[in-house]
Amino acid sequence: MDKSKRPFLKSKRPFRRRLPPIRPGDRIEYRNMSLISRFISDQGKILARRVKRLTLKQQRLITLAIKQARILSSLPFLNNGESTARPRSLRARRK
């Protein structure tokens, strides 16, 4: 059968498998800052599980590691950069 006679079938896109965010050899602990920093937003918030495609157990371990690193001062609680402050032009002016 010719392809032109099958208009109801969509062309398939090639399947691209995404690498898991945590490899089996990675240790999830508070000292592994390169791993922890991938799961924190620019403002310093812990990213959601569905955003980074983690399992429930991995998310729990990441959350514990981030909280331990914050308590031991390896990681700040908040990232007070310019991205969190509102620009001067958007502030309400009082007269």
CATH class of the domain at 33-72: Few Secondary Structures
**DSSP strand count:** 0
**What structural class do the secondary elements suggest?**
mainly alpha
For the termini, the CA-CA separation is: 76 Å
User: Tell me about the biggest sheet?
Assistant: none
Counting H and I runs of at least 4 residues, what is the number of helices? 3
Strand content: under 5%
CATH superfamily membership of the domain at 33-72? Ribosomal protein S18
SSE order: HHH
Radius of gyration: 22 Å
Overall mean pLDDT score? 79
Overall CATH architecture of the domain at 33-72: Irregular
Describe the overall structure:
The chain has a domain at about 35-70: 30s Ribosomal Protein S18, CATH 4.10.640. It is about 25% helix and about 0% strand. It has helices spanning about 35, 50, 55-70. The longest helix has 16 residues, at about 55-70. It is elongated. It starts with about 30 loop residues before the first helix and ends in a 24-residue tail after the last helix. The model has no long low-confidence stretch (mean pLDDT about 80).
